[in-house]
């Protein structure tokens, strides 16, 4: 908690709102770790002190609830007098935090929240660098589908959350453009034990591919039960989130083999520092970070970079500095641009990855692939 | 025409008949007593009249209108009030509030209802306790509160279920005095009581029932002398 | 007694009007606004639950409908979400009516569970229907940013809710509600159509819950089904707010809301990862040691201290 | 030409039948995974007559115990289940004895404050789990986790099948315990008339403690059965509270046979709902069924089973 | 055997017993009389520990049991057949009887005692697998008494056993009570059927409004003017 009501002269406060308790706390804490790790590295490099003022991170817990997120924002801005905000994990909380920041004219750099809307409202104080709009998670995937897979039919299953819905909407639109027939298209409520009724029905429609947007554990339940049903499709692609995480492989076991997913980051990307980040994180916290960690790590770098460049350490100064960002992070180059109705939205780099022999390999874009893609995937019986 | 008439009423609880083909009438201004052994169906008759239980068969008429199909809360509206054998005070309301709830049936005005309640509380000799929560009253007063609350709804027919039970002779006499005063104000009363002395002294007619059926009905002396009543209710030794 | 009440209300009102003069910090004012919202919902719930004894586990439905009304007006008709303050409560009331007809056929825990199920049904519907934008929720841009403005609107809503419940409670309806809570059979025998009166209590309760929901939407500017129709974070927290302060008391829900919001925020800001744990422990302790809430327990204590031993007729028994 | 359409029609018919069969089989198995959790709840609700919202949290505790047994001591989850049951039993006893029984004795305006107490307990248990285990998702991978057998083209998960038999076994055992042993009869007697049980020399407040303990142990067992196929995180219990209520009301409070039959009916309804309506609406099926049963069959299935 | 001294008891704020004192000696049949609501049931419930808000002394076989919890009192051999029967309606007749013999002493002889009870009430043997809730009132009353006997009590407390029974059954029940008493079981009885009970009991106490106002031999009281007036309606 902050005790000073006035901004102290010798610190630049950065407020970071994350779900540190509640059901999203796994990722909130991972991001907090990554923020702190990046901060310490940058501090060691002498970058956290600007003109005699040092950067101070203030973390606030939003418990994954949106009214608490609002309170946390109010507290950081009005009581702790932070110079800028960052964090915001779930889209719901991000909506609220970004809206509040916008109305209080405080720059905010969104770390993870990926609902399309957030950077589509023309909010000039809201920046999104390391997170793609949910419907753009699949840029690389579509390249690959167009060039390699050329599916005629596809099935979409997605969790009934903001992220799931946005992803499905994006996929549906792209499929329509290409004349791909959507043979199954339904949401499900996260946390189900038994997906077999749904999967059996998908199986009956016999799609060329399945596009599935799932949270961590639903993802492993879906592939495990697909295997149990002996439901073979040429490719099952996850729409980010669940299908790329270490826990996915752990829980899905053999059923994870050859499952593909689009993602924003993998440890094997070629951007400088990515591998070091991964290794150092594992060393420090004894756990593999996923793209959420990378987002937080990269975000910290963007913040420090912007603060260092800012002419004035007030809201407009920082806003201007952010706007002028051109920085290559472990998430790739970051540049806040206005495009396709988005404002202050960095263009995302997305990848398609595939589990091969228990390892997550990048299979698309061609330029950065770490292994050739396997397609069509063998039937369950033959894997 | 009688004020009240029950025609062949039957009530079964899962096969067992608690009230079995009972018919009787109540004339305006009279006090009808009902006696019968425990479990003979007296309270059930009250519950049937006040529509707390639906009839299995039969008809109930009040002021020439059939009332056995109306919802329970309308019975009171039509002018039939009752008390409960197992008293049901509104525990966390004061005595006055308890009675006020009853008085609200005939008025929407808070002032009028309160005024009426004060009168009735006085009438029943409860004014000393009017600001006490009902849960702190002893049984004798709770029973009197039952009467007061029912009176507040301005019934034409009042059903009293064992209002003297559990009262000592003096309290009992006070209760009887109140009942008589009620009768004198023109109300018709059906009363259930186990204490024969009370019943004999107060009733115009007595209905004796057993196993839900009528044994006999008539003047108190006749009923008390009826051999079957003696056998089933008063006890052989009593004869 | 009456004068004392009036005096207290006047003082409270003047104090409330002066709050923005005393609390200038927007963060503190924000907390106060949240308290106003929760106090409104709590007061509305209290009418049905505290006075009428009908414990609803599904008030999130009315809250959510209020919030969504404001959001959808803005989304579809592109009119100010402030119109939600009109539509929200009306929509909530209209929905409450059939809900009442269904659920009031049940008593006690069965009623509670049926309401719980209905709340969940609304959550699932709003998650899956596309008119409400499903799980995506609705985001609006607030036109006004001044906290003081929201404060006065929130205060007005709470004042209206308090006034309405106060009026209802101190009228025939209030007497009838309490009598239904105390003994439904006795109430019936006194000519009270219990279902009708339960619905009469439910409607304003839903109305003001919906109003609070609409205001909440205007203030927080975002709603999604997971949040608005949340069983634990809305439906149950409403009950907690009322129980903390004191069910069936005028000021209980307001005091409960203040405790809930302030402690929740203080814990969150100071206790780190253990904040919900400490809050949970506090809930257990308060319920176990103050089963009638803070006001309820204090008045009980006060009464015990004041009351003479025994009742005035006690001497009669001793003389027998 | 004619022939081929006929063939495809027959094939289509077969496909539809398999889909239906798969839904029903999945539903029955799914229901049996709910059964033990609901069995615990019906026991607690039947005897104590309270709405216990901490039930799911106890399921969660049981799952963590099994998880720890597996990872620390390499104990198979079906054995770890017994450790979980013991821990949950003790936990349940403590909750009933030192919290709920204390509250039952005080007078309050709204008796539902007991429900709030169980919510407090739920928060506390969940957050303690979070402090110890973080919010991480955890799971147990066993050799049989993904094993399946196929019967007439319908896939049947082996761990769910095991769960099915264990659920039936526990239900039968509980049924025998309640009907054949003195302790079991004392539990039923206490449920039916607490004071009357005291007249018979039954220490009924101790019985409520034991009952809460057994109910909790069953909940933990139900959670352990899920572990090989499902996963675990501190809030996992909330998934099961609503389902247990539905099953308890469906089967009739306190009825063991009602609980298992109710669980299977709910599982099947959810499964058919997911197949033929939408996976997103599957929980709606259960909730609507719940309200209908509350309104039209207040005694639950029990009223049929007893005849 | 049982000595009650200065017993007071209340329900919440309502005191219903005031300084009750009486005693029951070994082998006796003692009756408590009183109008409805006089507090008879409350006395019995206080003895058997159901009513907990109480003060005073209850001595059984020389030890004070007033502070014991209810279930321990039953294990001392005081068995209470409560007013309104209080059977376990969803358990069978046989299970209800078994519930009566939970204590070790009685459990050891469960089989024999059940046979004796069935001899006493043959109708129960016939209906042993039926749920108690479906029995007629009279049968339920027999079951309640039978369940009490299953515990092989030292002191049998019966609260209005003839309640709701047809006159013929009332006669039978009284005969059985007399029988039980003659077999050596001490009985404390509460009854509305004043004339009958007074004529068969050893001694009786008369209660009014929670106080003992009179005590004496059965026959003696039967001729008492107050009793005649208040309870026999003569
Ligand atoms: N709700 C009910 N369900 C089942 N049986 C009932 C119900 N109410 C009453 N009975 C039965 O109906 C019969 C008549 O009961 P009722 O209460 O009318 O007797 P009563 O004449 O008022 O007796 P008492 O003098 O003891 O008050 C009894 O056998 C009783 O057990
Ligand atoms: N659970 C209770 N709560 C409050 N008051 C009670 C309770 N049980 C009994 N009473 C009251 O206590 C007093 C004594 O009741 P008790 O049942 O002991 O009388 P009784 O002599 O057994 O009467 P009866 O002949 O009707 O059985 C009565 O006034 C009664 O209303
Ligand atoms: Mg009666
Ligand atoms: Mg009695």
UniProtKB/TrEMBL annotation, chain B:
<dbReference type="GO" id="GO:0015188">
    <property type="term" value="F:L-isoleucine transmembrane transporter activity"/>
</dbReference>
<keyword id="KW-0547">Nucleotide-binding</keyword>
<dbReference type="GO" id="GO:0005524">
    <property type="term" value="F:ATP binding"/>
</dbReference>
<dbReference type="InterPro" id="IPR027417">
    <property type="entry name" value="P-loop_NTPase"/>
</dbReference>
<dbReference type="InterPro" id="IPR032823">
    <property type="entry name" value="BCA_ABC_TP_C"/>
</dbReference>
<dbReference type="GO" id="GO:1903806">
    <property type="term" value="P:L-isoleucine import across plasma membrane"/>
</dbReference>
<dbReference type="Pfam" id="PF00005">
    <property type="entry name" value="ABC_tran"/>
</dbReference>
<keyword id="KW-0067">ATP-binding</keyword>
<dbReference type="InterPro" id="IPR003439">
    <property type="entry name" value="ABC_transporter-like_ATP-bd"/>
</dbReference>
<dbReference type="GO" id="GO:0005886">
    <property type="term" value="C:plasma membrane"/>
</dbReference>
<dbReference type="GO" id="GO:0005304">
    <property type="term" value="F:L-valine transmembrane transporter activity"/>
</dbReference>
<dbReference type="GO" id="GO:1903805">
    <property type="term" value="P:L-valine import across plasma membrane"/>
</dbReference>
From TrEMBL, chain C:
<feature type="transmembrane region" description="Helical">
    <location>
        <begin position="199"/>
        <end position="221"/>
    </location>
</feature>
<dbReference type="GO" id="GO:0015658">
    <property type="term" value="F:branched-chain amino acid transmembrane transporter activity"/>
</dbReference>
<feature type="transmembrane region" description="Helical">
    <location>
        <begin position="277"/>
        <end position="299"/>
    </location>
</feature>
<feature type="transmembrane region" description="Helical">
    <location>
        <begin position="149"/>
        <end position="169"/>
    </location>
</feature>
<dbReference type="InterPro" id="IPR001851">
    <property type="entry name" value="ABC_transp_permease"/>
</dbReference>
<dbReference type="Pfam" id="PF02653">
    <property type="entry name" value="BPD_transp_2"/>
</dbReference>
<keyword id="KW-0812">Transmembrane</keyword>
<feature type="transmembrane region" description="Helical">
    <location>
        <begin position="251"/>
        <end position="271"/>
    </location>
</feature>
<dbReference type="InterPro" id="IPR043428">
    <property type="entry name" value="LivM-like"/>
</dbReference>
<keyword id="KW-1133">Transmembrane helix</keyword>
<keyword id="KW-1003">Cell membrane</keyword>
<dbReference type="GO" id="GO:0005886">
    <property type="term" value="C:plasma membrane"/>
</dbReference>
Automatic annotation (TrEMBL), chain D:
<keyword id="KW-0472">Membrane</keyword>
<comment type="similarity">
    <text>Belongs to the binding-protein-dependent transport system permease family. LivHM subfamily.</text>
</comment>
<dbReference type="GO" id="GO:0006865">
    <property type="term" value="P:amino acid transport"/>
</dbReference>
<keyword id="KW-1133">Transmembrane helix</keyword>
<dbReference type="InterPro" id="IPR052157">
    <property type="entry name" value="BCAA_transport_permease"/>
</dbReference>
<feature type="transmembrane region" description="Helical">
    <location>
        <begin position="43"/>
        <end position="66"/>
    </location>
</feature>
<dbReference type="Pfam" id="PF02653">
    <property type="entry name" value="BPD_transp_2"/>
</dbReference>
<feature type="transmembrane region" description="Helical">
    <location>
        <begin position="154"/>
        <end position="178"/>
    </location>
</feature>
<dbReference type="GO" id="GO:0005886">
    <property type="term" value="C:plasma membrane"/>
</dbReference>
<feature type="transmembrane region" description="Helical">
    <location>
        <begin position="209"/>
        <end position="233"/>
    </location>
</feature>
<feature type="transmembrane region" description="Helical">
    <location>
        <begin position="245"/>
        <end position="266"/>
    </location>
</feature>
<keyword id="KW-0813">Transport</keyword>
From TrEMBL, chain E:
<comment type="similarity">
    <text>Belongs to the ABC transporter superfamily.</text>
</comment>
<dbReference type="Pfam" id="PF00005">
    <property type="entry name" value="ABC_tran"/>
</dbReference>
<dbReference type="InterPro" id="IPR052156">
    <property type="entry name" value="BCAA_Transport_ATP-bd_LivF"/>
</dbReference>
<dbReference type="InterPro" id="IPR003593">
    <property type="entry name" value="AAA+_ATPase"/>
</dbReference>
<feature type="domain" description="ABC transporter">
    <location>
        <begin position="2"/>
        <end position="234"/>
    </location>
</feature>
<dbReference type="InterPro" id="IPR027417">
    <property type="entry name" value="P-loop_NTPase"/>
</dbReference>
<dbReference type="GO" id="GO:0005524">
    <property type="term" value="F:ATP binding"/>
</dbReference>
<keyword id="KW-0029">Amino-acid transport</keyword>
<dbReference type="InterPro" id="IPR017871">
    <property type="entry name" value="ABC_transporter-like_CS"/>
</dbReference>
<keyword id="KW-0813">Transport</keyword>
<keyword id="KW-0547">Nucleotide-binding</keyword>
<dbReference type="InterPro" id="IPR003439">
    <property type="entry name" value="ABC_transporter-like_ATP-bd"/>
</dbReference>
């Amino acid at each position: 908690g902050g005790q000073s009501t006035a901004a102290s002269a010798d610190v630049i406060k950065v407020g970071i709102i994350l779900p540190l308790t509640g059901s999203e706390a796994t990722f909130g804490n991972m991001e907090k770790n990554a923020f702190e790790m990046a901060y310490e590295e940058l501090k060691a490099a002498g970058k956290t002190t600007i003109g005699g003022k040092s950067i101070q991170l203030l973390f606030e817990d939003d418990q994954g609830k949106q009214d608490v997120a609002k309170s946390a924002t109010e507290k950081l801005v009005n009581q702790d007098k932070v110079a800028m905000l960052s964090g915001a994990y779930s889209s719901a909380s991000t909506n609220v935090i970004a809206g509040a920041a916008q109305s209080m004219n405080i720059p905010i750099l969104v770390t993870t929240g990926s609902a399309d809307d957030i950077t589509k409202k023309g909010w000039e104080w809201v920046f999104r660098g390391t997170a793609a709009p949910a419907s753009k998670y699949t840029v690389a995937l579509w390249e690959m589908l167009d060039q390699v897979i050329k599916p005629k039919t596809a099935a979409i299953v997605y969790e009934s959350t903001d992220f799931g819905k946005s992803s499905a909407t994006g996929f549906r639109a792209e499929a329509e453009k290409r004349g791909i027939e959507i043979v199954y298209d339904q949401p499900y409520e996260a946390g189900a034990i038994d997906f077999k009724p749904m999967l059996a029905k998908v199986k009956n429609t016999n799609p060329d591919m399945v596009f599935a947007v799932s949270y961590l554990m639903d993802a492993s339940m879906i592939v495990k039960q697909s295997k149990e049903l002996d439901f073979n499709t040429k490719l099952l692609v996850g729409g980010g989130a669940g299908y790329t995480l270490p826990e996915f492989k752990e829980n899905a076991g053999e059923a994870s083999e050859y499952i593909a997913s689009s993602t924003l980051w993998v440890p094997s990307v070629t951007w400088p520092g990515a591998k070091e980040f991964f290794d150092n994180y594992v060393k420090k916290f004894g756990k593999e970070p996923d793209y959420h960690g990378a987002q937080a790590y990269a975000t910290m770098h963007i913040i420090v970079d912007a603060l260092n460049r800012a002419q004035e350490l007030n809201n407009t100064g920082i806003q201007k500095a952010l706007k002028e960002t051109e920085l290559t992070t472990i998430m790739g180059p970051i540049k806040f641009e206005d495009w396709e109705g988005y404002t202050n939205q960095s263009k995302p780099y997305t990848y398609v990855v595939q589990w091969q022999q228990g390892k997550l390999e990048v299979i698309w874009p061609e330029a950065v692939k770490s292994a050739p893609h396997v397609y069509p995937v063998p039937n369950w019986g033959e894997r | 025409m009688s004020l009240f008439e029950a025609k062949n009423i039957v009530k079964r609880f899962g096969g067992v008949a608690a009230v079995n083909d009972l018919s009787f009438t109540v004339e305006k201004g009279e006090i009808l007593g009902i006696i019968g052994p425990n479990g003979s169906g007296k309270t059930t008759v009250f519950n049937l009249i006040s529509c707390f239980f639906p009839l299995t068969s039969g008809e109930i008429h009040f002021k020439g209108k059939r009332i056995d199909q109306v919802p329970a809360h309308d019975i009171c509206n039509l002018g039939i009030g009752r008390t409960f054998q197992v008293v049901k005070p509104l525990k966390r309301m004061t005595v006055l509030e308890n009675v006020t709830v009853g008085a609200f049936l005939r008025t929407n005005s808070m002032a009028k209802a309160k005024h009426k309640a004060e009168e009735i509380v006085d009438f029943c000799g409860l004014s000393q306790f009017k600001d006490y929560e009902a849960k702190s009253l002893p049984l004798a007063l709770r029973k009197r509160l039952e009467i007061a609350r029912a009176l507040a709804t301005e019934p034409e027919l009042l059903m009293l279920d064992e209002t003297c039970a559990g009262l000592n002779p003096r309290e009992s006499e006070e209760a009887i005095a109140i009942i008589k005063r009620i009768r004198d104000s023109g109300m018709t009363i059906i009363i259930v009581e186990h204490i024969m002395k009370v019943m004999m002294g107060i009733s115009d007619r007595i209905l004796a029932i057993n196993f839900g059926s009528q044994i006999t009905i008539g003047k108190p002396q006749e009923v008390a002398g009826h051999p079957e009543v003696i056998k089933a209710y008063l006890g052989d030794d009593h004869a | 007694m009456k004068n004392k009440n009036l005096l207290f209300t006047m003082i409270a009102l003047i104090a409330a009007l002066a709050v923005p003069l005393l609390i200038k910090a927007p963060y503190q004012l924000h907390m106060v606004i949240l308290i106003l919202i929760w106090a409104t919902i709590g007061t509305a719930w209290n009418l049905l639950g505290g006075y009428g004894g009908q414990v609803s586990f599904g008030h999130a439905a009315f809250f959510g409908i209020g919030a969504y009304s404001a959001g959808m007006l803005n989304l579809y008709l592109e009119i100010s979400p402030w119109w939600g303050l009109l539509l929200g409560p009306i929509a909530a009331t209209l929905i409450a009516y059939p809900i009442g007809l269904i659920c009031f056929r049940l008593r006690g825990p069965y009623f509670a569970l049926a309401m719980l199920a209905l709340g969940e049904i609304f959550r699932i519907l709003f998650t899956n229907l596309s008119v409400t934008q499903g799980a995506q929720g609705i985001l609006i841009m607030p036109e006004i940013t001044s906290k003081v403005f929201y404060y006065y609107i929130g205060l007005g809503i709470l004042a209206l809710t308090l006034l309405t419940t106060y009026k209802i409670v101190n009228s025939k309806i209030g007497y009838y509600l309490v009598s239904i809570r105390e003994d439904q059979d006795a109430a019936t025998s006194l000519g009270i159509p219990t279902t009708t009166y339960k619905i009469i209590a439910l409607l304003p309760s839903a109305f003001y819950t919906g109003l609070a929901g609409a205001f909440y939407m205007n203030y927080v500017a975002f709603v999604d089904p997971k949040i608005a129709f949340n069983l634990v974070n809305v439906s149950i927290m409403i009950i907690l707010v009322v129980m903390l302060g004191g069910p069936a008391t005028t000021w209980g829900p307001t005091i409960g809301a203040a405790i809930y919001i302030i402690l929740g925020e203080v814990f969150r800001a100071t206790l780190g990862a253990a904040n919900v744990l400490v809050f949970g422990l506090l809930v257990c302790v308060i319920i176990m040691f103050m089963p009638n809430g803070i006001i309820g327990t204090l008045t009980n204590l006060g009464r015990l201290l004041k009351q003479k031993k025994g009742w005035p007729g006690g001497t009669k028994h001793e003389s027998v | 030409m004619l022939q081929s359409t006929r063939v495809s029609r027959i094939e289509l018919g077969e496909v539809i039948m398999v889909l239906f069969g798969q839904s029903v089989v999945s539903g029955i198995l799914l229901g049996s995974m709910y059964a033990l959790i609901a069995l615990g709840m019906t026991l607690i609700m039947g005897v104590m007559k309270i709405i216990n919202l901490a039930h799911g949290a106890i399921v969660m505790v049981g799952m963590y115990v099994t998880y720890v047994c597996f990872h620390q001591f390499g104990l198979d989850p079906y054995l770890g289940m017994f450790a979980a049951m013991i821990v949950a039993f003790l936990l349940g006893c403590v909750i009933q004895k030192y919290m709920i029984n204390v509250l039952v004795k005080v007078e309050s305006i709204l008796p539902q404050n007991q429900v709030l107490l169980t919510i407090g307990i739920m928060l506390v248990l969940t957050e303690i789990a979070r402090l110890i285990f973080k919010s991480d998702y955890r799971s147990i991978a066993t050799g049989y986790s993904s094993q399946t057998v196929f019967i007439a083209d319908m896939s049947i998960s082996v761990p769910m099948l095991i769960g099915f038999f264990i659920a039936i076994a526990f239900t039968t055992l509980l049924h025998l315990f309640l009907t054949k042993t003195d302790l079991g009869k004392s539990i039923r007697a206490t449920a039916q008339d607490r004071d009357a049980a005291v007249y018979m020399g039954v220490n009924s407040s101790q019985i409520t403690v034991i009952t809460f303990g057994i109910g909790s142990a069953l909940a933990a067992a139900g959670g352990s059965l899920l572990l090989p196929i499902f996963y675990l995180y501190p809030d996992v219990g909330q998934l099961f509270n609503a389902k247990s209520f539905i099953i308890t009301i469906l089967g009739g409070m306190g009825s063991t046979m009602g609980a298992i039959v109710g669980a299977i009916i709910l599982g099947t309804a959810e499964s058919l709902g997911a197949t033929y309506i939408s996976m997103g609406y599957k929980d709606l099926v259960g909730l609507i069924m719940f309200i209908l049963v509350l309104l039209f069959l207040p005694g639950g299935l029990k009223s049929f089973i007893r005849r | 055997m049982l000595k009650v001294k200065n017993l007071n008891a209340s329900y919440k704020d309502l005191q219903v017993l005031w300084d009750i004192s009486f005693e029951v000696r070994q082998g006796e049949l003692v009756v408590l009389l009183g109008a409805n609501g006089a507090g008879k049931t409350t006395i019995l419930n206080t003895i058997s520990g159901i009513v907990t808000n109480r003060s005073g002394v209850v001595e059984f076989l020389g030890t004070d049991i007033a502070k014991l919890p209810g279930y321990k009192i039953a294990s001392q051999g005081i068995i209470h057949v409560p007013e309104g029967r209080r059977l376990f309606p969803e358990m069978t007749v046989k299970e209800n009887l078994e519930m009566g013999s939970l204590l070790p002493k009685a459990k050891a002889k469960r089989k024999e005692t059940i046979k004796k009870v069935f001899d006493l009430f043959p109708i129960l043997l016939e209906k042993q697998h039926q749920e108690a809730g479906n029995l007629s009132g009279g049968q339920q009353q027999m079951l309640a008494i039978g369940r009490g006997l299953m515990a092989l009590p030292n002191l049998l407390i019966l609260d209005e056993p003839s309640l709701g029974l047809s006159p013929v059954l009332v006669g039978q029940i009284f005969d059985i009570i007399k029988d039980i008493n003659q077999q050596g079981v001490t009985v404390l009885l509460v009854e509305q059927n004043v004339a009958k009970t007074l004529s068969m009991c050893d001694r009786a106490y008369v209660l009014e409004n929670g106080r003992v106002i009179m005590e004496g031999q059965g026959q003696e009281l039967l001729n008492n003017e107050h009793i005649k007036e208040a309870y026999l309606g003569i």
